[in-house]
Each structure stands twice: as C-alpha cells, then as structure tokens.
Design a protein that fits this description.
The complex is a heterodimer of chains A (248) and B (347). In chain A, 12% of the residues lie in helices and 43% in strands. By secondary structure, chain A is mostly beta strands. The model of chain A has no long low-confidence stretch (mean pLDDT 92). Chain B is globular and about 85 Å long. With 347 residues, chain B is mostly helical. The model of chain B has no long low-confidence stretch (mean pLDDT 93). Classes of the chains: A mainly beta (248), B mainly alpha (347). Chains A and B meet through helix 1 of A and helix 1, helix 4, helix 5 and helix 7 of B.
C-alpha cells in the first residue's frame, strides 16, 4: 500500500468518526392543539359550557396523551417515527405545540395514538411525560390515564357537583387507547430549513357526544378502566380535526 | 523518519476522533451487585437488565425503605409495616396502618421472592415491581404523600443527592430513580434457605412429623400453594365468609369481571408461621384457625374455587403435622439477614 493512500484512509476514518459531519436527512414538523368546546375556545375556570345533552358545566382540567406519531407518505405507505410521548395539557401553553423530527419527504396524513400504548403501561417506572408524578398514572390498578377532564356541573350528584372523567385502560375489550389518523387537506413537506405545522382543533365536548352520549346527571365520575371509560374513548376518537396547515 | 512522525500523528488523530465526548470527569461507576438465585426456582420474572443492581443502588434502596420521610408527615417508613422478623409482613396487625391513625382494608403482605411475582397487591392490580411502591407512598390510608412533593424533598436533601448520584450517575432525582432504587433493595429480599430447602438439597432431613405434614401438604394444599414458591400466583375465592364491614370485592375491582368477585392472591406459604395474621383481611391470628376454615368454614358463593368448594378435611393429627411442616418453611437466614435489617436514618 502506498503511504499516501494509507494516510488518506486514516483521514477518512477520522472523518467517519466525527458524528456531526454526517449530513442531516431529517427535518422538523410541528403539531399544534387548539382546544374547544363545540365552537367556543376552551377556557379553564368559570366559563359555562353546554355538553351535547345541553347540560351546563365548567372545566378545570383537560389533558391527554399523544404518542407514537407517524406520517403517511404520498403512496399511502406509513413512515414510522421513533416513539415519543407527549402530555398535552390545556393549562400549559408549551404542551400544546409539539415539535417532531421526520425523514425528509412529502406526506399526506398524520396518525398517532390518543393515549399510551400497552407496552409502556406494563414496563415499570417511566420518565418525562410518562412520569407518574404528573398524576396521569393509576397506582392501584397500574396504567395510564389517557384523557383527563375535570370540572363541575350543577347536575352532578358527586360531592361539590364535581365532574371527574379519568379515562384509561389498555387491556382486553376496554382498551381506551384510540388510533387516530387524519388526512391533511394539503400535503406537508418535511425538509431542511422547513417547519410545516398542522393544527388540530380538539373539541372536548366530543367526549360526551356520539356514539355514547353522557348526561352529567347520571354519569359524573369515571376514574377506573372498564366499560364506562371505554365508551367515552369511543366518543373521543372523533375529537380531532385538522383546521390549519402551514407547509413552509 | 519524517514519514513515521506523520503516521503517528494520524493514528493519534484517529483515537482523538473516536474518543467519547465529555467522559473524563465522571465519578467512578457504581459497583455491580450480583443477586444470588436458587438453582431449583424458575427464571425470575423481574428484568434485571432494565435495572441492573449495584452495591450503591441496593444500599440506597435500603435507606429509602427504612426512611419515614417518604410519608407525608415523616412518621411511617416502608419498614414500619414490613417488618423483617415477620418476613416483612406486619406482625399482629390485621389491617394495614397509615399516617393519621388511618387503616386500610387489607392486611400487609409479606415481602420476599418478589422477582418471581408478575403482579402485586392482594388483587394483582400493580403490574410491575418498580411501580409497586407508588401505591403505599401515595395512598391516603398509607404514607399519604404526593409523589412530586417527595421527589422535590429528596432533591433538596444533599445526602440523598449524593447517594442517588453514586447509584445512577449525576443528575436530578426523578421518580424512576426512586422506584428503581427501592426495587434494587427489594430484589435482594429472597427467601430460599429454609429447612425445607435444605431437605430438598439433601442437606437435612424432615422429622417423621414434618414428613407426614409434607405429605398432607402435597395432597391437600400444593395445588394452589405450588412448590418451590409455595404459590401458583393465581387469584382465587377460598370461601372466606363475606366481611360486610370491609365490603371488598377483591380482584373484581381490577378486572371489572363478576367472575373475579371475592378472589384474592394465593399467598406464598414460605415464612408463614412468622407472618400472622392470615388472609387478605388478617382475620385469622392463628394458623390453626386457617386449617379450621378450610376444614369446615367454607362459605359457598358463585365464584368459590372448585378445589375448596367441598372443604378440605383436616383431622386434628393432620393439622398438627401440617403445622410442623409449615415451620420448616421459615427461613431464619432471611429473617435474620444483616443486609436486610432496619437502619437508623439520622441525617
């Protein structure tokens, strides 16, 4: 081997080991979540709303997990992304906008799990968005609360007219994790120096609408997995609509 | 000669390029800790690869286990209810105790051989050892503390910061580290040094009465209390008369299935003589009351286990021998182990 060829090889190795030099083949995209009750903006506190059964109520907390986001390519094949977990919380502005990384390309639809997949429900102590200290984990019956809505209604027969909807469960027929997949009205293109953004309008009232309408007079408290929770999850799977796309 | 210098430079550059970044000032890695496992037990359920035990981690878990500051008013530690001399059950207490003189609705289970258990609590509601402590720490009838408040308190404590750094590397304490440390101590709580085990290894012999008791056990108890763990890990309705004061549906609370009404975990019989009272509500203070129950106390309900449905007759002589056999399941090495004993937390 010629000495200069050997030196060149060494140089190539040196460069190969410098991780930063590898060109990026990924780009960012953003998901925004805009919470509503029907057509009105959701405000935590004293604003009075009506559920689909025309019953008055107020909301003090609204939060849910978004996980396992994926994109759908123009040829309808699925582009899986590394599994990430996000707790979207109406009371935390930062949480309502999620920045994600995806391979460069053009995509026509977005999918995710509304909730936490079963694996993470049975894998012991988790961190970050899945930290049980966030109050979204049932200690007595291990598993995540997928969607949490709390408030009050004069019709509620619970103490202080409270509404408590802690919806979860990942086992058997009463799996409250819902797979959501929504086509974007225009395609989004992920690439360098771009940050396309998709805004979901999330109607919290969907939890109490079809196909299993909820009357607060008879159902004001759900805080366990099971059929009642699952029925709410059948309602909330229609909670998301895409209302804005910026493909820039 | 000049060529060699150039070569050397390049080779050095190669090493430099491949170096790990920022790895120079890290403290010494924790020392691995090998958990001793018996040859005749099945493979553990607990995945050690997810939480490798270290000397520092086990020691930290032990300190946490015995630190009453894990409870809201700093009055109750894990070890308060889980006493080593009672095989980590609560000796002489029928229902679990908590802060503010509160009581739970079930008895304190003994703690050992947890790495072979796939779910926890009398109703099996907890699905992983690591998150098991979340229940007693946050339950208002037990330690009554908010998890985030506890994490904040630990982070504010210099001693704990340095102990956690030593066990898990530098950084903020989070709930995962807390739970993993507690697990690292709990996975060392293993009981397989009883006389029964010595007999199985042909290092000791049963007395004639113990041998008689063992035969009775095998004929009448072993279907549910399966060797070598002395439980099959299932949930069954063993015909205990309904306690209307406690109103406890058992496993049905977890599965929502009426098929699981009044079903509770089959507990291990290891160390059973050291850990009264018995049953999920601690109703029997004497093991002979348990024998009597199976003999002639079975209450018929729709979910009654077929094995006990017609009772398990035990004559006085059989009860005596069975008792003597059960004493051979006491593991003195375990209940006297210095590495598991309570430590005084004074700082």
């Amino acid at each position: 081997m010629k000495p200069c060829f050997f030196l060149f090889t060494c140089l190539v190795f040196c460069i190969a080991c410098k991780k930063d030099i590898i060109p990026k083949k990924e780009g960012n995209f953003r998901l925004n979540f805009d919470h509503k009750i029907g057509t009105a903006a959701l405000k935590l506190g004293t604003t009075v709303y009506k559920n689909p059964s025309a019953e008055d109520f107020t909301i003090s907390a609204f939060k849910y997990y978004i996980s396992n986001v994926y994109l759908v390519k123009m040829d309808n094949s699925v582009q899986a992304l590394p599994a990430t977990y996000h707790l979207v919380d109406e009371s935390k502005a930062d949480s309502k906008s999620i920045l994600l990384l995806a391979p460069q390309g053009e995509y026509r639809a977005i999918g995710f799990k509304l909730g936490v997949d079963s694996t993470r429900n049975v894998s012991g102590a988790q961190t970050d968005a899945l930290d049980p200290a966030l109050g979204m984990f049932w200690s007595w019956n291990s598993g995540y609360i997928m969607v949490k809505m709390e408030g009050a209604s004069p019709l509620s027969t619970a103490a202080n007219h409270m509404l408590t909807f802690h919806i979860g469960g990942f086992k058997g027929p009463f799996n409250a994790v819902q797979d959501i997949r929504i086509q974007t009205p225009i395609s989004i293109t992920v690439g360098p120096d771009r940050e396309p953004a998709v805004t979901f309008t999330v109607d919290a009232n969907a939890m109490f609408g079809q196909p299993n309408p909820v009357s607060f007079a008879t159902s004001a408290t759900i805080h366990a997995p099971g059929e009642a929770a699952w029925k709410i999850s059948e309602n909330y799977k229609t909670m998301f609509r895409i209302t804005n796309v910026t493909d820039l | 000669m000049k060529q060699y210098v150039v070569y050397t430079c390049f080779v050095l550059a190669l090493f430099w390029a491949c170096r790990k970044s920022g790895g120079d000032n890290r403290p010494a890695a924790p020392t691995p800790y090998q958990v001793e496992l018996p040859a005749n037990f099945p493979a553990p359920v607990y995945d050690f690869a997810q939480n490798p035990t270290t000397v520092e981690g086990v020691a930290l878990g032990r300190r946490l286990f015995y630190d009453p500051r894990l409870s809201r008013d700093s009055s109750i530690s894990c070890g308060f209810c889980h006493q080593q001399f009672a095989a980590f059950a609560h000796f002489d207490h029928s229902l679990s105790h908590g802060i503010d003189n509160r009581n739970g609705i079930r008895s304190v289970p003994s703690l050992f051989n947890l790495i072979w258990q796939k779910d926890f609590m009398w109703d099996g509601g907890v699905n992983h050892l690591d998150i098991q402590p979340l229940t007693p720490i946050t339950d208002e009838n037990e330690m009554g503390e908010d998890l985030q408040r506890l994490i904040d308190r630990l982070n504010a404590d210099k001693k704990y910061r340095s102990l956690f750094d030593g066990a898990f590397g530098p950084g903020e304490i989070n709930s995962q580290k807390l739970f993993r440390a507690l697990s690292q101590f709990m996975v060392t709580m293993n009981s397989f040094h009883s006389k029964y085990d010595s007999v199985k290894q042909q290092k000791a012999q049963f007395t004639p009465d113990e041998a008689g008791g063992y035969a009775i056990f095998q004929a009448k108890c072993a279907a549910c209390h399966k060797e070598p763990l002395f439980t099959d890990g299932s949930f069954r309705n063993n015909g205990l008369p309904w306690n209307e004061f406690l109103n406890d549906a058992g496993r049905m609370r977890i599965t929502n299935s009426s098929d699981d009404l009044l079903k509770f975990r089959v507990p291990s019989l290891r160390n059973i003589i050291k850990s009264p009272p018995y049953m999920h509500d601690g109703r029997f203070y004497d093991i002979f009351k348990v024998f009597e129950h199976y003999s002639k106390g079975i209450e018929q309900t729709p979910t009654i286990d077929p094995i006990v449905k017609n009772g398990i007759p035990l004559s006085t002589e059989e009860q005596r021998q069975l008792y003597l056999f059960l004493t051979t399941l006491t593991d003195y090495t375990f209940i006297n182990s210095k590495s598991l004993s309570e430590i005084l937390i004074d700082n």
